Structure prediction request, 447 residues.
Amino acid sequence: MRSIHSKKPTVLIPPSVADSNLPATILLQAGNRSLSVHAKLDDNSGDKKPVNRLELPPYIARLLAIPAYSYRILRYDDHSIRIGPIVGILTAGKPGETAASEKTVRRYKQLILQGWARGIFVYCFLPQAISWNRGFIYGHTCTPNGKWLKGYFAIPDVVYNRILYRSTENQKLVQKMLEEFDENPGVYLFNRRFLNKWEVALALAQNPQTRQWIPETDIFSSTNLKSFLQRHQELFLKPCHNSRGQGIVKIERTSNNGYRYGRTEWKGKHWIYAPTPNLLAMRLRQNLKHPRQYIIQQGVDLARLDGRVFDLRAQAQKNRQGQWILTGVGVRIAARNRFVTHVPNGGSRAEFYNVIREVFNSPQIQKSIEQELYKICTIVPAVLEQELNIPLGILSLDIGVDSSARLWILEINSKPARFDEDDIRQRHTQLLLDYFIFAAEHNSKGR
Prediction:
């Protein structure tokens, strides 16, 4: 931790933290910075001041490399006080992109402002903005009144990886930076990387708590394809490293015992026919860019709304106690003659309860679907985190409901896209801030 030596300034300590026996000097900590300060009991702290906040004067704030504000007291003992947490949001666009979209900027601004309301400092930064030698990160934030601010800030207690492109995250610079965060005892990094569909399916299929929700899955090969064709009427080929429905291939058995396949990007009713499994395997190997990087998965007979397939888009997050809970769920409905529900591929949004009531008219079935959904979102993320040995704080899950009302996990994403449902988006932000506090309080690596 970097300590600043200067003439000791004075800070007012709220009575909730100390009594009349307050030591004359304490160590004030924020992120990777610390400062020895004179401590004085705040005798004027009335009902209007939050009991767990410490007001940071501008001079001390500059030395700690954070804005002057009223900060949450994260933890304290007889000789030190840590404020915050200080949170860094790691962002980056596609290689070559120089500016974030307006939607992204608005989303981060909302998070930063709600962080200020709770005494949490949040800023955004790019991978190349870290100066380990100086102990600073050049980042962007906004003031509590909404004005954008850029500068050199303390290295944070918590880093949330929001790099949304695999090509960016796989760059050497980014990988080196993530390793440095991993090795830094004072930084808690979560959602460190994208997930691989094969590792997810394997981890969940091998665990007795979760295997019931996983369609039969294996790595794509000609041998596996022929074996799956003997057991299932429909199959899906999915690229291990893509998301949002990109590159998915659907295979169907035809009425004359042949096969046909279509791809996400092929609109309308465009299919390619193959009369035998051998010819099908050959054509697929020719059409797939990297066949060995695909999984083959049992097709699920999804329930339909007005003739169109749909799935549930659920988000799970850790709360203030570090427990996985369901943030919210929406429905994504495929366009006609399409087999993926993602909005960029022509899908549309719908409200969960409305769709479930319309498709399944039994109140008992409706209740069982809801209960199973909650069960999935509390058990599956915990199992995945343990099996993959990766700290996670938020996941999105694509969950299919078949015609018999059974739930199936179709995809899990560690870099979830933004929900357009207002209630889910607001709950997401509050839970994220809750988890920032929990992560900083329970960082087993220590500062």
